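INFO batch 0412 | record 1 of 1 | parsing
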Amino acid sequence: MSYQGNSYHSTSFSLFPPAVKHLLIINLLVFLALFTPGLGQYVFGFGALWPLTHPNFMPWQFISYMFLHGGFAHLFFNLFALWMFGQSIENLWGTKRFVIYYFITGIGAALIHILVTGANVPMVGASGAVYGILLAFAMMFPNRPIFLIFLPIPIKAKYFVIFFGALELFNGVASLQTGIAHFAHLGGMVVGYILIRLWGIKGRHE
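INFO prediction complete | emitting tokens
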């Protein structure tokens, strides 16, 4: 993998590049620990992102919360999206840039969620970083078709992300009591967009 200006030249493509592979493994191991009797309460207490005024809050939770999930469905969809979209981004950008992007968008997602909502309950999940990756995929491969199980026609990545971004904004503003951190999802996308612009990375016409 080499980078010259705004053009990337990949010599190989991996379905499980290093960062994506290790993120998947760590998330699975933490999930098993979280639902292990006698251990799960400690994992949640130390790892979830607690409200800033809560006695359980610790600075490292802005990172550790990304590895905890509230249930199997939460874990599955986040990890599936991480693998589905993240592999293309890591192969394109390289592992170092991908890892930096992943954690910055995840931290930024948490900060925006706290600023907008006040965050009076603990937060868990990689969704903020995953939405950042989804945004990156749409910017790098705007015209690449995405196929959804419940929709038998392909959707270009750029329209897919616009739809999900608008949906998250609507749900966040409507203050629907869904138990989902909608502004964290939006935060991951916003921070991701800013990072990509700051780095000056251009997408591909595919």
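INFO post-check: The first strand starts at residue 2 and ends at 4.
INFO record closed
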